[in-house]
């Protein structure tokens, strides 16, 4: 039972000026686990996960990955350690096409001009982009479409496809279903189960408890920047979690 | 999946060097309609240029002559080189107001290093090759300086490069002791004043640089990252792109190209004037915007800025040929710049 968590965040605090967004929060994820992170608006869920993804440094506290202490100074550091995040405030580049967004920051290259230089391999990126989108099962007309011409759900699909097509140990999904329809949400939950089978851990942030109870192994509740509960999903009920979120007990 | 890729293969064929930032939307849509849309939307500036040339030619018979067209082309080649760098800065979401002064300083420095027989020069009579290398390095250094303070320290690009603009103009005056230096070595004069066959060397250099930088912007990773950083810097950072590095590189390219512009200008005039290149920063921004590079960053096709440059130089020379007083030419150029920015803003609003 003494497994090493792949992620361990210890006593994380974060202040934005006078706002105490997080206070001494502990958070851990074990291999192949789907952890749901819940709480009211402003509870600190996104902030905690952005710290894990290297977007902000914590004001205090430590992060360990597979037992090793890390100090992320940028998202690039977190990505290189196998942490992928799908952001609530979608991190897609509107002026770039779908394939380009799926490979944002890790464009594939091939040799050109007789090996003299390397260029972006657009064809290969487009092929692999199709494969990633097929897994997300969301219909997008063309991978050459600029993202600004897509619907909210399609844009979210692009962000999800990007995270799952990168080599990741853990994928953080911040409200990934916010713009998705009923069918697409169902596909997303299937995808999460599929990721779990492929031994990729998932942190799933959502306000929809029925989705959380469908996929998660564990539920962590934040309130006012503090962790107030950590429950095995099978040992609790939606009603109890709802009460924790609202009343804190 | 196969299907969708195939139905676009026709458009693939016109995809020279990524010339299709021309987005092809929806596999279902009519191909012909797409081609028309691409030409009208993405390359309309060439049609506008054609219209302007037509109008000016009908107003004065002196416009459509070989001598005049060559003259326009020659002027365009220097501005064109500077515009490449300015466009790259704009694509990365920033501004470079220091390019005009960099042009001036580069010419002054080149003259100071090479020219002989004038007390204001260094007296080193340097060979053109090391002199040019020094000037180019200084240009890159200016870009690095601007880029560092804008990207790493987070200073406002407009005001930072405005300060550089004033500082560098002062440096040009210091280097030449406020005098004009003239008489470069003949091999140096060849760059801006010579011809290769019937074509001016400067035009060949400009076209070569356009091709190289179009290739970098559309086929190289750094080029793609410039577009991403200009389009959405947060997304770029979240995906592990070093926004600071990309912005610094964009400014270094701009500084390098402004230095090339300064070399070409001093070479063509066979002299370095302390006011050389002043005002060129605004022409460069105007030509970029007229050529469809968005001031909001991340949008535009570099090759179209050639048309932007030709529009500006055609109108300017056309008005001179029409004997329009210099003040009115100034007003007109201001109006043209205003129109270009208005169009750019409306385009974003319409989206
Ligand atoms: N960049 C920032 N600057 C200042 N304050 C911030 C910043 N980001 C978050 N906050 C504050 O920190 C607190 C926690 O915000 P956070 O976005 O983490 O909440 P959340 O749990 O994700 O909420 P939601 O469910 O609405 O997404 C809030 O009070 C918020 O106003
Ligand atoms: Mg949030």
From TrEMBL, chain B:
Keyword Acetylation: no
GO cellular component: plasma membrane
Keyword S-adenosyl-L-methionine: no
Primary localization: membrane
Entries under InterPro entries matching the protein: ABC_transp_permease (IPR001851)
PANTHER family (UniProt xref): ABC TRANSPORTER PERMEASE PROTEIN YPHD-RELATED-RELATED
Protein name as catalogued: Ribose ABC transporter permease
Species of provenance: Aerophobetes bacterium
């Amino acid at each position: 039972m003494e497994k090493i968590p792949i992620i361990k965040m210890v006593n994380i605090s974060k202040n934005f000026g006078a706002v105490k967004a997080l206070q001494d929060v502990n958070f851990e994820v074990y291999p192949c686990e789907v952890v749901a992170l819940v709480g009211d608006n402003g509870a600190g869920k996104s902030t905690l996960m952005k710290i894990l993804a290297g977007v902000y440094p914590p004001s205090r506290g430590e992060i360990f990955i597979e037992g090793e202490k890390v100090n992320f100074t940028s998202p690039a550091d977190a990505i290189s350690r196998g942490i992928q995040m799908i952001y609530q405030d979608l991190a897609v580049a509107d002026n770039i096409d779908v394939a380009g967004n799926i490979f944002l920051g890790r464009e594939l290259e091939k040799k050109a001009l007789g090996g003299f230089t390397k260029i972006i391999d657009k064809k290969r990126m487009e092929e692999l982009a199709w494969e990633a989108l097929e897994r997300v099962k969301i219909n997008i007309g063309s991978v050459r479409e600029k993202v600004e011409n897509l619907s909210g759900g399609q844009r979210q699909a692009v962000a999800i496809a990007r995270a799952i097509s990168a080599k990741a140990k853990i994928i953080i999904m911040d409200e990934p279903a916010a713009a998705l329809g009923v069918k697409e949400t169902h596909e997303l939950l299937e995808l999460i189960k599929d990721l779990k089978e492929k031994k990729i851990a998932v942190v799933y942030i959502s306000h929809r408890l029925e989705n959380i109870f469908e996929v998660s192994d564990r539920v962590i509740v934040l309130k006012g920047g503090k962790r107030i509960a950590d429950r095995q999903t099978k040992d609790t009920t939606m009603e109890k979690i709802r009460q924790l979120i609202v009343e804190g007990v | 999946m196969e299907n969708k890729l195939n139905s676009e293969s026709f458009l693939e064929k016109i995809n020279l060097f990524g010339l299709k930032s021309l987005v092809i939307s929806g596999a279902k849509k009519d191909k012909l309609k797409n081609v028309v849309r691409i030409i009208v939307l993405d390359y309309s500036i060439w049609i506008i240029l054609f219209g302007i040339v037509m109008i000016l030619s009908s107003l004065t018979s002196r416009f459509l002559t070989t001598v005049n067209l060559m003259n326009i082309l020659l002027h365009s080649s220097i501005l064109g080189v500077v515009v490449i760098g300015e466009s790259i800065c704009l694509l990365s979401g920033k501004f470079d107001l220091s390019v005009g002064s960099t042009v001036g300083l580069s010419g002054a420095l080149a003259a100071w290093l090479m020219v002989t027989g004038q007390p204001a020069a260094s007296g080193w009579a340097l060979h053109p090759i090391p002199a040019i290398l020094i000037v180019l390095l200084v240009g890159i250094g200016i870009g690095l300086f601007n880029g560092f303070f804008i990207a790493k320290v987070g200073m406002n690009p407009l005001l930072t490069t405005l300060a550089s603009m004033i500082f560098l103009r002062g440096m040009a005056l210091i280097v030449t002791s406020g005098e004009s230096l003239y008489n470069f070595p003949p091999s140096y004069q060849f760059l801006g004043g010579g011809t290769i066959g019937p074509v001016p060397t400067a035009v060949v250099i400009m076209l070569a640089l356009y091709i190289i930088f179009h290739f970098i912007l559309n086929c190289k990773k750094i080029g793609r990252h410039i577009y991403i950083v200009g389009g959405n810097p947060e997304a770029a950072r979240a995906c592990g792109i070093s926004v600071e590095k990309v912005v610094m590189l964009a400014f270094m390219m701009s500084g390098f190209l402004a230095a090339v512009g300064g070399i070409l200008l001093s070479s063509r005039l066979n002299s370095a004037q302390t006011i050389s290149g002043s005002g060129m920063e605004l022409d460069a921004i105007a030509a970029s915007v007229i050529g469809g590079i968005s001031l909001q960053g991340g949008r535009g096709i570099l090759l179209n800025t050639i048309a932007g440059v030709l529009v500006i130089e055609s109108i300017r020379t056309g008005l001179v040929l029409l004997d329009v007083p210099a003040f009115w030419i100034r007003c007109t150029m201001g109006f043209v710049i205003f129109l270009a920015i208005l169009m750019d803003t409306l385009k974003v609003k319409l989206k």
